[in-house]
Amino acid sequence: MSDDTDDVIDDVFAVIEDRKANLPEDSYTTSLFTHEKGENAVLEKLGEESTELILAAKDDDREELAHEAADIVYHMLVLLSMKEMDLADLRAELAERR
Ligand SMILES: N=c1c2ncn([C@@H]3O[C@H](COP(=O)(O)OP(=O)(O)OP(=O)(O)O)[C@@H](O)[C@H]3O)c2ncn1[C@@H]1O[C@H](COP(=O)(O)O)[C@@H](O)[C@H]1O
């Protein structure tokens, strides 16, 4: 399967890196990088969204499950960027497990 969403995770990560470098106003990503709680802001989001993901799975709500999974992936990418990591680190870890 191949379509124009193939590279979407790389594209979103590139936008996150750009937000980190430039901190534009009116950007949710910027608000995470500049939050007074520091990295705890994104960690709290990941906790909340994990619960929402579990509830969506329990309800067998596939649309909500996709929504919450996307929220988690986005916030996980922000966390990787905060830790000076990137998708190569994630890919390497997954590849090692094959
Ligand atoms: N993928 C995301 C993304 N996923 C989630 N979010 C934000 O994360 C927040 C989630 O927090 P909440 O759960 O409180 O919000 P919510 O809408 O009530 O969430 P649910 O109840 O639906 O779970 C919302 O404000 C969303 O807008 C995201 N914000 C940005 N992105 C990507 O980042 C790019 C840059 O965004 P900006 O930095 O805002 O320009 C965008 O173009 C997107 O590609």
Could you outline the blueprint of secondary structure elements for this entry?
Blueprint: H1 8-22, H2 28-33, H3 40-58, H4 62-82, H5 87-96
Helix pairs in contact: 1-4, 3-4
Could you walk me through the main structural features you see in this protein, from its secondary elements to its overall organization?
The structure is a single chain. With 98 residues, the protein is mostly helical. The chain has one domain: MazG-like (Helix Hairpins, Orthogonal Bundle). It contains five helices and no strands. It has helices at residues 8-22, 28-33, 40-58, 62-82, 87-96. Helix 1 (8-22) packs across helix 4 and helix 3 packs antiparallel against helix 4. The protein is globular, with a radius of gyration of 15 Å. The two termini are 20 Å apart. The relative contact order is 0.13. The model has no long low-confidence stretch (mean pLDDT 95).
Please state the CA-atom Rg, rounded to the nearest Å.
Answer: 15 Å
Separate helix tally: 5
Low-pLDDT parts are: none
Shape: globular
CATH superfamily: MazG-like
So what's the CATH class? Mainly Alpha
Give the overall average pLDDT. Answer: 95
What is the name of the CATH architecture?
A: Orthogonal Bundle
In short:
The protein is built from 5 helices and no strands.
Descriptors:
98 residues, mainly alpha, Helix Hairpins, binds phosphoribosyl ATP, Phosphoribosyl-ATP pyrophosphatase, phosphoribosyl-ATP diphosphatase activity, hydrolase
